[in-house]
Amino acid sequence: MAKVFKVTIEKNRCKGCGLCPNACPKQVLEMSKEINDKGYFYSQVVNLPACIGCRFCAFMCPDVAISIEQEEAA
Amino acid sequence: MKALFKRPEALADVVTHYCPGCTHGIAHRLIAEVIDELGLREKTVGIAPVGCSVLAFNYFNMDFQQAAHGRAPALATGIKRARPDLICFTYQGDGDLASIGMAEIIHAANRGEKFTVVFINNAVYGMTGGQMAPTTMPGQVTTTSPKGRDVDDVGYPIRMCELLTSLRTPGFIERVAVHTPQQVVKARRVLKTAFELQRDNKCFTFVEVLSTCPTNWGMTPFEATKWLQEHMVPYYPVQNFKKFEEAPEVNIQTAAEPAKEA
Amino acid sequence: MEKVLMKGNEAIAESAIRAGGLCYFCYPLTPQSEVAEYLARRMPEVGGAYLQAESEVAVANMVYGAAGAGARAWSTSSSPGISLMEEGISYIAASELPAVFVNIVRTGPGLGGILPSQGDYFQAVKGGGHGDYRCLVLAPSSVQEAVDMMPLAFDRADRYRNPVMVIGDGMIGQMMEPVEFKEPKFPPLPPKDWATTGAKGRKPNVVNSLYLDPKAEERLNNVLAAKYEKMKREEVRFEEYNTDKPYRVLLVAYGTTARICKTAIEKLDAEGIPVALLRPISLFPFPEAKVLELGRKAEFLLSVEMSMGQMVEDVHCAMGHEKPVYFFGRSGGIVPSPEEVVDAVKSRLEGGKS
Predict the structure, then answer these.
(1) What SS3 state is found at C353?
(2) Given this model, what pLDDT does residue C121 score?
(3) How confident is the model at residue C127 (pLDDT cuts 50, 70, 90)?
């Protein structure tokens, strides 16, 4: 059965560097058109069902703004 | 829910001052992950350089010493000679390690001091505003090479891994990169090997990390990863230079017991 | 306790070991290389750490690292090497680390010569490295005194968490004199719970001197200044000689020069000219109150140094305008003879200026 992943990006930790959407092979992430408290265009999850849990986004995030969980199999 | 990725304990839960997309953040995190995995946090002393990462002591959840510019390998030598039971790593940039600290790194490597060096090579001096470094690429424009690095005037960039590999003593020397997720995974493995070797008291370990400086390279973080791949990787090959092999016993003298409290 | 005839450099080394100075980093430089040579053999015998580093720059930073990890770390050098260490000494003071440095002074400036000198007074006493800090500076005038100073230096370094400098000269380092190694007792020291020994069961310790925030930087400087005020109250050391009867001239001299002055005083005494000597033993803190007290009883003061005149400025400062302060010295490594000191006193008594 399909694995389900949860990607959480801490909006106000994000510095809008743009490395994570470029790292993602499945277009799960996109830079927002809104700014966060620091004034950065933060990264956000736009297509979570497409996530394959590769963690590339988290590997590339210099600010540890991304955490990833996997739903346990039923 | 099972956690697949979260902040390592050895990394302090603070927001860093690093620029958006600066790969210092990745390098810091990898070190922290490895330290956590090996259970070394409570006996590790990190040494912060002078450079963008001068405040590294705020970003790790372990004992730290702040070194003068270039002197981190000397501090690490002092620590390991006084307290060989502690794990010690230096974290140094281009100017710190390859310019002002050149004597310290070569001699610490040559003596085979058993600490780990993490050398962040981003081909420029970041903190001071983007001046030329010993590692700046030929033709690369910096604030002190406005027409691009002129190799006829100041020579070619220094390849530290290759330089240290010419020494007989150092045991583990490898160059990694952190500009793609695949390279990040490899870099983590290499860092883990280095810290394992130190944990087992084997040898001097040196990991050069090809890194980006989007701000001083004048490009976006993602463009900077492309520039690194296109310009730095051909000149600074990502590979192992020395794997540790059990060598004949070299008796390095250390304090017989850890220094007592006065 | 038996007396042993030992060369100054070696006696200093032995005394440091006995005081627990078991972490020694060094670089060869005349006239103190014998300390390193002695310890290369002796340190392994006592289970300490010994390393000849690539330069004095590295040495000072190794001392910093080891001291930061809680060790009694120390080094010796001579003038040009101390100049290289001054970066590290500034960092050590600013990071509030204990460390002991011994300067066996040679002539300068620059590469200079290898003969004795007192030309590093400014460097030792007025900072040496950058920023608002001081070393506690002790000046022995005999090999025995140098031996006695090492345990004191290590104790005070730990107690104040500050670098301590023992300043000798080429004579102290090279000559042989009989010494005994005493075991002085000191009050207990607080534990080094600030040291980077691994953050087990506690918050991480950081040994650091970077303070970008101006309030924090000023706070550190006030902390350091308070130490130096305490040193001024509690660490002044001096010897007064021939002050028990009236005198016409007060000589001020330290180290081996003071011994020459004592001989000069005997000769002057024989000629009916009573002269006294104040020998500062702590150069920082300088015994300014004593200089003033004793100087007031003289017609003038004469600072005698193996230099072009450095301590004389502190003598001037202490005396204000109350009495004339003159200087006599030789440089180049030429040790003034007692007769020259006698002549220097007499020429000024007869109305000539220095």
Answers:
(1) coil
(2) 98
(3) confident
Helix (H) or strand (E) holding B175: strand B172-177
Contact across the interface for B81 and C196, Cβ inside 8 Å: no
- CA C9 to chain CA centroid, Å, is 14
Per-residue confidence (pLDDT) for residue C354, from 0 to 100? 42
Q: Which residues of B touch A60 (CB under 8 A)?
A: 26, 180-181, 184
**Average predicted confidence (pLDDT) for chain C:** 97
What is the residue whose two structure tokens read 């829910």?
A: B1
What is the three-class DSSP state of B100?
A: helix
Residue B56 lies in domain: 24-242
Structural domains in chain A, CATH included, are: 5-70 (3.30.70.20)
Residues with Cβ within 8 Å of residue C120, at least 6 apart in sequence: C79, C82, C103, C105, C108, C167
B177 close to B209: Cβ distance less than 8 angstroms? yes
Please name the member of C23, C57, C210 whose beta carbon is closest to the beta carbon of B54: C210
CATH number for the domain including B179? 3.40.50.970
Alpha-carbon gap, residue B162 to B171, rounded angstroms? 13
**What is the per-residue pLDDT across B127-177, written as a single tens digit (0 to 9) for each?**
999 999 999 999 999 999 999 999 999 999 999 999 999 999 999 999 999
Domains and CATH numbers, chain C: 4-234 (3.40.50.970), 239-349 (3.40.50.920)
How far apart CA C318 and CA C291 sit, in angstroms, is: 6
Residue type, C352: G
Alpha helices in A5-69 (DSSP H): 19-23, 56-60
Taking residues C63-87, report their average pLDDT: 98
Q: State the average pLDDT over residues A9-28.
A: 98
pLDDT at B250: 62
Helix (H) or strand (E) holding B190: helix B181-199
Q: How many domains does chain B have?
A: 1
Taking only the tens place, the pLDDT of each residue in B182-201 is 999 999 999 999 999 999 99
Residue C20 has pLDDT above 90, yes or no: yes
In 3-state terms chain C splits into helix, strand, coil percentages (rounded to 5) of 40, 20, 40
Which pTM was predicted?
A: 0.92
Q: C275 pairs with which residues across the strands?
A: C249
Q: Which positions in chain C touch B57 (Cβ < 8 Å)?
A: 206, 208
DSSP track, C47-113: T-EEEE-SSHHHHHHHHHHHHHTT--EEEEE-HHHHHHHHHHHHHHHHTT--EEEEEEEB--STT--
Residues of C in contact with B62 (CB under 8 A): 198-199, 204
